[in-house]
């Protein structure tokens, strides 16, 4: 056990009992459903951009719980606001409201530059925010004339059945057929294909400004604005999924900021609660905001006092600490450093949502087999060296660290990366000497 345990960590350890990482993993596989495979480590504590595992090893967290821990771990202000709210009023159901719920809705309307008459629906996750968006889209029905929803190849919108219908990946979809119908996927970035598909029968188009799960792939320049023109002309809603890209991740509140595009709805989650589960759908303007009427949608936990207090504390901190500018400058530093490395063939993304593709060690693409999972091996080498990163594809690494990451912290990883690629290639060779 780590000797620098906090009183809070000690209290929880007493509740669950002490054990080693290996023992926890054995108990995990005997008690938890196998949908996530074997967890990489058993984590017991976090502070800022670092986490510690059950055996006391420290890691620099460059994934932030997949773009969730916007302010790192155990942020003092977020922690104290959550504790205060929980000690005051924790849950009330949506028969009632609470000051934090109203204040957060107002704050979201402000930071998304939503026009007068815009509204917010609160949920507990990204997939739930998109379920609400899916139902919103279905209400744009024109008396049965419209039945089609368009999404993009490569899209990830979540795992519940509606959001899954919007998600493109076959391996996620096919085991659960039939999914809610009427969803068509068009080739990514192809405006002609979009023009051909979006018509007077289309209810909505769903877009991610940067496809995170697909490997941090931004929409091509000009695509979003043209998609707005096409959807407006057809009377279809433009629904932007900012679950991963929103709340400062790309250096602005939303990734679409500065594009001049006003969407019909935006879904948010991941970073919104600073690590506490919360999702939201913002509907733009009075007409879109009236599509779902009383009784047509709901949730028990959504928008509860604790989650909305956590989000208020997170947004307040991002604002008061000037973190949007910080994200831009640290993000530019990381991208520039990656571009100088021979091991890296392409760098994508914006701010602190970074994806990069790997050549082999020292830039030697022939050093690893084409079908080898180099990025997966880099993830393992990084863990051994004390870094948490993620591989959304066999050649792609994704970084989505806390927005408070410093240049010095980033540099420790950037300096280690060539060695990690080398170690990964060596590990692959040992596994498959051919
Ligand atoms: C993660 C993600 C979701 C799903 O969010 P959950 O909270 O896991 O349900 C939806 N859309 C995008 C773009 C995401 O990155």
Structural description of this entry:
- There is one protein chain.
- By secondary structure, this protein is an alpha/beta fold.
- The chain folds into two domains: 173 residues, Aspartate Aminotransferase, domain 1, CATH 3.90.1150; 243 residues, Type I PLP-dependent aspartate aminotransferase-like (Major domain) (Aspartate Aminotransferase, domain 2, 3-Layer(aba) Sandwich), CATH 3.40.640.10.
- 39% of the residues lie in helices and 17% in strands.
- The protein contains 15 helices and 17 strands.
- The protein has a seven-stranded mixed β-sheet with strand order 4-12-11-10-7-5-6, with helices on both faces. A four-stranded mixed β-sheet has the order 1-2-3-15. A four-stranded antiparallel β-sheet has the order 13-14-17-16.
- A hairpin with a 4-residue loop joins strand 2 and strand 3.
- The longest helix is centred in the C-terminal third of the chain and has 25 residues.
- The protein is globular.
- It starts with 6 loop residues before the first helix and ends with a helix.
- It binds pyridoxal-5'-phosphate (PLP).
- The site of pyridoxal-5'-phosphate has 15 residues, from helix 6.
- Its main location: cytoplasm.
- This is Acetylornithine aminotransferase.
- InterPro entries: AcOrn/SuccOrn_fam, Aminotrans_3, Aminotrans_3_PPA_site, Class-III_PLP-dep_AT, PyrdxlP-dep_Trfase, PyrdxlP-dep_Trfase_major, PyrdxlP-dep_Trfase_small.
- Pfam families: Aminotran_3 (PF00202).
